[in-house]
Predict the structure of DUF2877 domain-containing protein.
Amino acid sequence: MNKVTISQWIYPIDQLGKMATVHSVFDHSFNLQIGGHLINVANYSGYLSSFGLYLPDAMFAQLFPYIQQGNKVKIQKQKLTAYSIKGVQSVSWQEEEQEIVDLDVAKMTIPTEQLAVLKEVLSNENLEEKIGLDLTEETKTILKKLAYATKEELTTVDYEEITRFLIGRGKGLTPSGDDLLVAYLSILKLKKDSRAEEYSSVLAQSNLSTTDVSKEYVVASMQGHVNSLVYQLYQDLQEEKDKNIIERDVQKVMMIGHTSGKDLSMGLLLGLQK
């Protein structure tokens, strides 16, 4: 990734305003908060968040020393300017130096046989033992509803109970319950399953008591946007790539974060049961 790469979901990057606040800082990324949303500015090769902006090595290294939590960053269409006690630092790029990536799965169509391949690959991973949720009886009941309850069997109360149980459940920057629901929603949207709209409607009306970062992933998933590794998996399925490529894609997804990738994979598997 030598170009500045931007998720379609946040493009143009100045659509929410011109002055952001540094929300959180990590080794190779930071989040900017603006207009009630986040922009994830990162330098991870091969990974783009659904609300992500990738900066190539030199550009990221130039800006990063000026990024501290609470600092202001001015956002322009092709320019970021950080204001710090160290001074002011900008990075900018030309239109031809950027790539806008569409990570919206709702537009995709994947053959049923390919979804069956994905289900088989995921089923072989013993995901129940790897996810970050404790498999209590209550958890098992909720996961069973996600997997097997038909839209006729589910009431608004059920949707509310499931989302209330999962959102914010688990440790980390993106709790396991959130990751699971994000992936689950994406597979329902992919299958044009009306349950996706029911869950999205309930989520839109919930106060989403979870981390800000996780909340942004959930909001993006309600619109069909996923991270680039999940999108690549879907793209390879759509293009009917060989099973070994699908297995490789699943392994890449599973390696995200501590348990995030396993939780996402579990969400995919649950969404493929019906």
